[in-house]
Every structure is written in structure tokens, then in C-alpha cells.
Amino acid sequence: MSSNAPASNPTDKAAPSVSEADYLAQQADAAKDALAATFAQMKARLGQSADVRLWTKEHPWISLGVATVAGFAAASTLVPSKEQQALKKLAAIEEALREPRREKPSSNGSEKDDSGKSHGILGTILHEALAALRPMLMSMLSAGMAGQQAPPPQDDPANFGPIPGEPAPKP
Question: pTM for this structure?
């Protein structure tokens, strides 16, 4: 049985001159070259599309609107509101008015003074007694100083000098 149809067996055809591994390597190199060319084109087009001067030439009103929105967003982000500024000032004022805190007595019952040195229980008692007596001592000192003032001048006309417009008294 012989048929005029061509044989469907691929082994009957002539074998390709390139091996399968070489063929796959050529295809991989071609794919790499195609990807590199595509990325280069995309990079060039991205550079052109991101050029602000070209966008401004082609679409001036859209560029103006985008710049306005971007400026407003930047200003609202970077510049604090009046409320935030007032709160910051208030916090600074509160910090300035805050009194320095006294240190708590240490575990041995002594208290540290402003210089950082600690004194014993007798020093603490003396310090507190002087603090309690300070108003009385100040009052006594001011009363004593008031008693040492010069007496007020008498109402003797000879002490006042000549009256303007009248002749001077003769001695």
C-alpha cells in the first residue's frame, strides 16, 4: 500500500543544522536584546513625559492648576496653623512659669540644698526655723531703720530762705 501523501513522520525531514541547546540560547539572547531595547524606549519616553517644560508648553492651564494644588498641599503641611502656633507659645509660657521642683529628702533623712550638698537633720531644722522667722526679722529691721531717719524739719521760716519778690532779711 503505497500512498501519494507525504510522510507525517518528522524524522523523515532533514535535520536542522543547529542543535536544540544552541537554538534556545539564540532565543534567550534575542529576548534579552528585545527587553533591553524596550526598557531603553520606555526610559526615553518617561524622560520626555516627565519634562515639566513640555507639559507646560502643551497644557499651560493644567500645569498651573497642578502647581497651585502642590503649593497649597506643601504650605498646609509645613506651616503650622494659628491654633498650633498658639499652643506652642502657651506651652513655652507654662514651661517658663513652672517653679523648680524641690528634691525629696533622701533615705537617710537629710535634705539637699541648691548647691547639691546635703546637710543633716539639725541643718534642716535650722533652715526651716530661719524661713519661718524671716518675716519677723525683716519687720524688726525695717522698723529699726525707720527710727534712725533724720527728724522732719521744723516750720521755722528762717530755715526756708528768702521769699521770692521780697527783700532778703538782714542779719
Answer: 0.29
